[in-house]
């Protein structure tokens, strides 16, 4: 019975991670657009960290970097929920890989500016998620209980996001 509950928890975690990953892809690659026609054919590649993304209208603007960090925090938490026994490096590797793939795809398909700052921010966000998971784990006696609580929170947030996105889609039809 306990193994079955753990299996159901793991399935829920993977399902929620899948929804998160799809929304993340929509945000990063498709810039939250509902039509591919709205994507600007931009192809640029910046390898100088914190160069172009911080200066907007002659002022330092950290919003883009902060947003990149924030949207990748759940990635780190989900990685820990799915396989907490991995080493820190094994947890960071998929986060950094996905971020790198997003940046390369943006360049290949000319759907955004590929920027090392985005890669750094995304990876940092995932690492922060790993740290948050570690800190939360200190409050719980077992990972199963913690993952159950995190799944409930993630399910509520996912439902709210899906409802909000559905509303946006309906309004923009």
UniProtKB/TrEMBL annotation:
InterPro entries per the UniProt record, alphabetical: Teicoplanin_resist-assoc (IPR053150), VanZ-like (IPR006976)
Q: Which Pfam families does this chain map to?
A: VanZ
Q: Which domain of life is it from?
A: Bacteria
Q: Which UniProt keywords apply?
A: Membrane, Transmembrane, Transmembrane helix
Domain VanZ-like, chain residue ranges per copy: 17-136
Its transmembrane ranges are: 12-30, 65-81, 93-113, 119-137, 149-171
- Write down the PANTHER family for this protein, in alphabetical order: MEMBRANE PROTEIN (PTHR36834:SF2), MEMBRANE PROTEIN-RELATED (PTHR36834)
Name assigned to this protein:
Glycopeptide antibiotics resistance protein
Native species: Romboutsia lituseburensis DSM 797
């Amino acid at each position: 019975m306990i193994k079955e509950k753990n299996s159901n928890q793991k399935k829920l975690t993977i399902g929620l991670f899948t929804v998160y990953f799809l929304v993340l892809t929509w945000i990063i690659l498709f810039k939250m657009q509902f039509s591919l026609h709205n994507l600007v054919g931009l192809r640029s590649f910046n390898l100088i960290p914190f160069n172009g993304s911080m200066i907007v209208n002659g002022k330092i603007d950290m919003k883009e970097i902060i947003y990149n960090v924030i949207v990748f925090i759940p990635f780190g938490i989900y990685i820990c929920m799915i396989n907490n026994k991995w080493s820190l490096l094994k947890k960071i590797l998929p986060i950094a890989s996905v971020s790198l793939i997003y940046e390369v795809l943006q360049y290949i398909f000319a759907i955004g500016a590929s920027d090392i700052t985005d890669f750094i921010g995304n990876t940092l966000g995932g690492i922060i998620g790993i740290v948050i998971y570690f800190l939360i784990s200190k409050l719980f006696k077992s990972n199963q209980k913690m993952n159950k609580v995190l799944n409930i929170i993630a399910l509520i947030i996912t439902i709210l996001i899906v409802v909000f996105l559905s509303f946006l889609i309906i309004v923009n039809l």
